[in-house]
Design brief:
The complex is a heterodimer of chains A (about 350) and B (about 450).
Chain A lengths: L1 H17 L4 H36 L3 H19 L8 H4 L2 H6 L5 H9 L6 H6 L7 H8 L16 H26 L12 H5 L12 H28 L19 H17 L10 H8 L1 H19 L9 H4 L3 H28 L3
Helix pairs in contact in A: 1-14, 2-3, 2-9, 3-8, 3-12, 8-9, 11-12, 11-16, 12-14, 13-14, 14-16
Chain B lengths: L1 H17 L12 E3 L16 H16 L8 E17 L9 E20 L2 E10 L5 E6 L6 E6 L5 E12 L4 E9 L4 H4 L24 E11 L2 E9 L28 E11 L4 E10 L17 E12 L2 E12 L2 H9 L16 E11 L6 E15 L11 E11 L5 E12 L7 E11 L5
Parallel strand pairs in B: 1-2
Antiparallel strand pairs in B: 2-3, 2-19, 3-4, 4-7, 5-6, 7-8, 8-9, 9-10, 10-11, 11-12, 12-13, 13-14, 14-15, 15-16, 16-17, 17-18, 18-19
Classes of the chains: A mainly alpha (about 350), B mainly beta (about 450).
Chain lengths: ~350, ~450
């Protein structure tokens, strides 16, 4: 109880400091210091991952495998922390499926690895999106995910190294392309088109996508609602099935690395970033500042709900080891997961029924 | 292309000059269902379509007898439709190897074909199809994306569609005909054998839809010329849009029905020579289709290179007493398939191909159906073998995907238990060349009617 009181006090303080922000200040801050910053981090981490994989391929030691695995996890953080804003170039340029299609098509990947084709970046580019991106790299770098989330470096074949190098290079290329689309040019068919950050941060009659600051705010809120729904009713509910007997490991995201719960948490962290304007060491204002102008209590309650959801997701982790893919096969793990799902759906309802209407007040 | 169009019009003009202007009576138009027709008493042009032939015969009989003057314009229509009950095996996701069984019911199609007969040598023909109950928007479930996504699909043209609307002029002296409008392409059994009584299985071809547009019709102009038992066709029609070519149906998605209008920057040429009548199951045909598809893309700067589609088809069948067979071989080439794949891979929004951008350079389909017609009880059992591989050859960085090398074997029967009503049953097994993916089955029963079967 004491902790909750302290949290409420902290939230009230943060709210008070952000209260004075105008809509334009909120939009500017979120666009540049949250969204663009996230995509720049993503491109940077993906380049590190590519370098780590190249080092591993040149010198396949256990230490280098561990570094490559860590680099994969580090790259995963900004990507999953971007899922509350899957609008703009990540959608219009079709980049999302290039990075993060799942489940991985293991059958087809094995078929490709058996072929005699030389595996290059262009070759992987021409394959389906469920044969490239994060989960292909994850499948090759980690264990089977059922009993272990790692494997010995000696288990990697020459062909798998070829594939790893090609697909991580492609991931670095695609994330750089995404960062560039936000910072410099959102439409490759129109070289004079600015970065999308300039479009979204300058709503108005002459803006082709956002005619008012309300339109941008709605984009932000709808983005948060979209990922809340996906985490609760897709990423978590679908693998759980109707009961423990119908739980399906094949539907779990990031099952090989046991990174699912971190993925989900970072998904909700992206909601927190848009809502509060906090990203890494950068502070607000976010959508919360707008809500505060209408209902300060609601603004604080929503932030509390977001933090609570992140805690409930982390609490799903089995005490004896493993991740979401293991928890859904135990009764108590399922109960904890259901509690998180209920909280996420409640937060979604709050966003839809209480936060969204404040845009018109 | 312009020269070809000019040639077609010149040919039709020459034929037109030979034809005396026919007169018609002026009584009120009538609507009637085509009844069985006795043998014509006059010489009339042989039409490629079974229904066309009967109607032309009916018209020429009535006008030359002079006893019963038929009114022009006159309206006639026919119809067919069917419902399918099925059970099939499918997979939850791309990772699952254990099939699950799914049962389905589908009000698959009801079609109305109408003809405004303008004179004894000209008519306007149209067809309205209502598919799957006839709604414009559907929610589809895609098990192969993410965790299984529900997606809203706008099925404009696929749900309530006007697949045919054309003017047809015939010149009997020279056995020439001209079609202008939207008409079926004489390129595959699925587009030629258009009514359920023409084939024993539930669809004329089960695998055509994995390679080319199903029931393919396009807008254009076509000249048809008969020589004895042969019919030659030459046409220019609207082309495909390579933006919508996808792994799971090769060039099939390029059929421009997604938008209200059809981009016509690239047209296609269609040619064929037919002996007998493929539609009736007694004839053979060699067909050719060629057309560039790059100009019809909406995103004009994503692909600059040509992407011509070329198709060769040999199709037909014959009947010896009660025993008959039919089949087809379709060979297709997509120029610069690797470049098309790369350009499509980064489309956004509803055009996003997700995992389905890679395309084969050459594709091939073969099918053979054998059947025996117990005419006295109108029962036709059949066996059918079909194979399609849309990654027969690949270009550049595209990898052959054995998942799309499919063989399908089926057997079943068609029974016309009433004059115009039928029951079809079909059991099929399907296997791909992808290691580890087990064989699946599909069992369907179709119940429907076909007014054309009264002939």
């Amino acid at each position: 109880m004491k902790a909750l009181k302290l949290m409420a006090a902290a939230l009230a303080f943060v709210g008070a400091t952000a209260q004075a922000a105008t809509n334009q200040e909120i939009i500017n801050h979120v666009s540049y210091n949250v969204i663009l910053a996230t995509y720049n981090d993503l491109a940077s981490q993906a380049a590190n991952l590519n370098a780590a994989v190249n080092t591993l391929a040149a010198n396949p030691t256990e230490a280098n495998l561990a570094k490559a695995q860590d680099a994969w996890r580090a790259t995963r953080i900004p990507w999953e922390s971007s899922e509350a804003f899957l609008f703009g170039p990540v959608d219009s340029l079709g980049i999302d499926p290039l990075l993060d299609t799942w489940p991985l098509n293991i059958l087809d990947l094995d078929s490709v690895l058996k072929s005699n084709r030389a595996i290059t970046t262009d070759f992987v580019r021409a394959l389906g999106t469920n044969l490239q991106g994060f989960h292909t790299i994850e499948y090759l770098l980690f264990g089977d995910g059922k009993s272990a989330n790692t494997k010995p470096a000696s288990a990697l074949t020459a062909k798998q190294f070829e594939y790893l190098k090609a697909t991580t290079a492609l991931l670095a290329e695609n994330t750089a392309y995404l960062a560039n689309s936000w910072s410099k040019n959102y439409d490759p068919e129109n070289p004079s088109a600015p970065g999308y950050v300039q479009v979204i941060s300058a709503p108005g009659f002459d803006n082709p996508f956002y005619s008012s600051d309300r339109a941008v705010m709605e984009e932000f809120v709808q983005g948060m609602m979209g990922i809340l729904d996906e985490v609760a009713n897709g990423k978590m509910s679908d693998p759980m099935g109707a009961d423990i007997n119908s739980a399906n490991m094949a539907l779990v995201e990031s099952p090989f690395s046991w990174n699912s719960l971190n993925d989900f948490t970072n998904n909700i962290r992206s909601v927190y970033s848009i809502y509060t304007g906090h990203y890494r060491s950068t502070k607000g204002p976010g959508v919360k500042a707008l809500v505060e102008r209408v209902d300060a209590a609601l603004a604080a309650r929503v932030e509390g709900e977001i933090l609570n959801c992140m805690q409930l997701i982390q609490a799903i982790r089995p005490a004896g080891g493993g991740d979401f893919g293991q928890a859904i096969f135990t009764h108590d793990g399922r109960a904890r997961a259901q509690k998180a799902i209920d909280a996420l759906n409640a937060l979604h309802a709050t966003m839809e029924n209480e936060v969204l209407p404040t845009l018109d007040m | 292309m312009k020269r070809l169009l000019l040639a077609i019009f010149a040919l039709s003009s020459i034929a037109n000059a030979q034809e005396p202007t026919s007169s018609s009576t002026t009584t009120a138009p009538t609507t009637e269902i085509q009844a069985p027709v006795s043998a014509p008493t006059t010489t009339s042009i042989e039409e490629e379509d079974e229904d066309d032939e009967s109607r032309e015969a009916a018209v020429s009989t009535s006008t030359t007898n002079g006893n019963v003057e038929k009114a022009y314009p006159k309206f006639e229509f026919t119809s067919y439709g069917y419902i399918v009950f099925g059970q099939r095996e499918t997979f939850k996701t791309v990772q699952n190897l254990t099939p699950i069984t799914r049962r389905e019911m589908d009000l698959a199609e009801i079609a109305f074909e109408g003809e405004y007969i303008l004179s004894d040598s000209s008519k306007i023909e149209f067809e309205i199809e209502i598919e799957h109950g006839g709604v414009g928007t559907v929610v589809e479930f895609d098990p192969f994306e993410e965790f299984g996504e529900f997606e809203q699909e706008i099925e404009k043209g696929g749900e309530v569609v006007l697949p045919e609307l054309y003017y047809k002029k015939t010149w009997k002296k020279t056995n020439t005909a001209l079609k202008v409008g939207k008409f079926p392409l004489f390129i595959a059994l699925g587009s030629v054998q258009t009514k359920p009584h023409m084939y024993a299985s539930i669809l004329a071809s089960d695998l055509e839809a994995r390679m080319i547009p199903l029931n393919w019709t396009e807008t254009g102009v076509q000249v048809e010329q008969k020589f004895s038992d042969f019919t030659a066709r030459l046409g220019v029609v609207s082309g495909l849009n390579s933006e919508f070519f996808r792994t799971y149906n090769w060039i099939g998605g390029g059929y421009q029905r997604h938008f209200e209008t059809t981009n016509a920057d690239d047209l296609a040429t269609l040619a064929s020579i037919e002996w007998g009548s493929v539609a009736k199951g007694k004839g053979f045909a060699l067909s050719y289709y060629a057309g560039n598809t790059t100009g019809n893309r909406y995103k004009v700067d994503k692909l600059k290179e040509d992407a011509e589609v070329t198709l060769w088809t040999l199709m037909g069948g014959y009947k010896f007493g009660g025993f008959g067979f039919s089949g087809e071989v379709i060979e297709g080439t997509l120029e610069n398939s690797n470049l098309v794949s790369a350009a499509n891979a980064t489309l956004g929004g509803l055009a996003k191909p997700k995992a389905f951008a890679p395309l084969g350079h050459k594709a091939r389909l073969e099918s053979l159906q054998i059947y025996y017609d117990f005419a006295s009880i109108r029962l036709t059992p059949f066996l059918k073998w079909e194979h399609v591989n849309t990654f027969e050859e690949v270009e550049g960085n595209i990898n052959k995907n054995p998942r799309y090398d499919v063989t399908r074997n089926s057997g079943g029967l068609m029974w016309f238990f009433d004059q115009g009503a039928f029951l079809k049953a079909q059991y099929a097994t399907e296997v791909t060349e992808l290691d580890g993916l087990p064989e699946t089955y599909q069992a369907n029963i179709a119940f429907g009617f076909d007014i054309d079967s009264f002939k």
